Amino acid sequence: MNWRMWLWMAVGMGVGGCAKNTAVPPYPAATPEAVTKVTEAVFPAVVRIDVKQETFAEGKRKLLGGIGSGVIIDEQGHVLTNFHVAGRAAEIYVTLDNKERVPGKLVGDDHWTDLAVVQMDMEAVKTKGIAFKHADLGSSKSLLPGQDVMAIGTPFGFARTLTLGVVSNTDRTFYPERYRINQYETGDFANWIQMDTPINPGNSGGPLVDMSGKVVGINTRAAGQSLNFAIPIDIAKEVVAKILATATPGKKGCVERSDLGMELKPLQGFEQFYNIDINRGVLIENLDRGSAADKAGVHPEDILLELNGQATNARFPEEIAGLRKRIGDLAIGSEVTLNLKRGKEVITRTMKTEKLQSSVGEEREFAAWGVTVRDVTRAYANARQLENEKGVVITSVNPGYPAAKANLAPGDVMTRINEQAVDDLEAFAKLYEESAKRKDDAVLVDLVRQRTIQQAVMKISY
């Protein structure tokens, strides 16, 4: 009998040892037999993922190598992993349980939940005669604190490694701090499973499994020896379904979400100030300029009481992710009615949802000028207090190249090239190509730097 079973028996016996009802865990416990059985069932579905991810630095596109874990989720050879493992990957190799290595490709990713789907090269699998198994996906809804779980993956590159622990919390949030992946937002639409099951670098993307052998989470991050976190499998299943449904040849699958442009804050500690009942409503802390809510006349410090007639109560930080998900799950462009408390009045505002945008726009390299740039999104423009989202932002420059010699720097927003407007990344790329065809020896750049308008001249030599 292991210590967990002993603890449940002790609880059932009661203080002083007088027998009451003998307690048993409300889930399969981690007996040696159960651990061995789960290992035999799940190990064949767990893979090592070697990737080269696209990154931009010193004015150039580069490929950065990394190692992570993944779990095969179906007979078609789809592998579920983290966005920070395989997102933006230009090259992927999957090593299976039998140590065979096959190429993979990125089917789609979703940085908002830190998830990605990889497809194994099934022709290579067939050619090599590889047999593989897929894991069974369970449910995270019924997880309980104290429940035994196992984390399986490739910590520090050591494949087929398992660790054992318990669920510490099923509803953990990092609000108001934002956990970001290379500036990408994540964790906004779901809370996390916290467990003391040890994970290390390389475990990311591997499965968290219960003692029935079902995948209940995707191991994602560690914040200390006993502070480890996984994405609930119920969220992952939704994301996988949307990625696979939207993926087409030559185009990655994605998850599109709605946005109203409101930053929400739990009301704990503010009820008396706003003269509102406990556990009623959620505070609108801030608005994105030009967003649907802003245009409809919603104000910061309004209390959101209802969305489409349904209560929006969030007294505690753990309740915010669920409200964000309710908004995100609305159809893009659909009409939404908000009931708001403003002072002593209850007012109604109606608007249409917009597509959620990241603050990180598409990024490209423009080698002749020695610069990498990103599209300016509305979220980026709001965060940097820019007048609008026109232009492209410089992310890096190559020393010795025209942009660096003209003293352009990361963070500069280029709004015009040779007196022609740069509306977005596509417009910038077109102006760049036209300049190259003409073989311009000088290019005039209008830019915004720290909210001031400046000009620079790049000397070009082709």
- What percent strand? 35-45%
Radius of gyration: 26 Å
Structural class from helices and strands?
alpha+beta
How many strand units? 30
CATH fold title of the largest domain: Thrombin, subunit H
Distance between the termini: 76 Å
The largest sheet is: 7 strands, antiparallel
What is the overall number of helices? 11
CATH architecture of the largest domain: Beta Barrel
The low-confidence runs, each spanning 5 or more residues with pLDDT under 50, are 7-20
Q: Globular, elongated, flat, extended or rod-shaped: what is the shape?
A: flat
Mean pLDDT: 91
Task: Describe the protein's architecture and organization.
The protein has 462 residues and is of the alpha+beta class. The chain folds into 4 domains: 1-28, no CATH class; 31-255, Thrombin, subunit H (Beta Barrel); 258-355, Roll (Pdz3 Domain), CATH 2.30.42; 363-459, Pdz3 Domain (Roll), CATH 2.30.42. 19% of the residues lie in helices and 39% in strands. The chain is built from 11 helices and 30 strands. The strands form 6 sheets. Strands 24, 25, 26, 27, 28, 29 and 30 form a 7-stranded antiparallel sheet that branches. Strands 1-2-3-6-5-4 form a 6-stranded antiparallel barrel. The longest helix has 14 residues, at 233-246.
